[in-house]
Amino acid sequence: MTVEQRMIRLLSSEGCGVLPQSEIGRDSKLFDLGFDSLRYMELIVLLEEELGIEVPDGMLEIDSNTTVSELVRVVSRREP
């Protein structure tokens, strides 16, 4: 499973999100997917556990324009 596929699964209702995987795309904005700061921190914890990475401090905040592809790019650089 690719980093993108894993990320979409974690962002979906199978992870800590509310939407099915089929409704999440690379260009989806996290706010549009129902992510607020609390749900985002839950995602960070899941990412660290599932991928065995430490998420950089710069990625701990999200804004209204943060997209799935941005997260995939950052996480791909961190993956062991």
TrEMBL record:
<dbReference type="Pfam" id="PF00550">
    <property type="entry name" value="PP-binding"/>
</dbReference>
<dbReference type="InterPro" id="IPR036736">
    <property type="entry name" value="ACP-like_sf"/>
</dbReference>
<dbReference type="InterPro" id="IPR009081">
    <property type="entry name" value="PP-bd_ACP"/>
</dbReference>
<protein>
    <submittedName>
        <fullName>Phosphopantetheine-binding protein</fullName>
    </submittedName>
</protein>
<feature type="domain" description="Carrier">
    <location>
        <begin position="2"/>
        <end position="79"/>
    </location>
</feature>
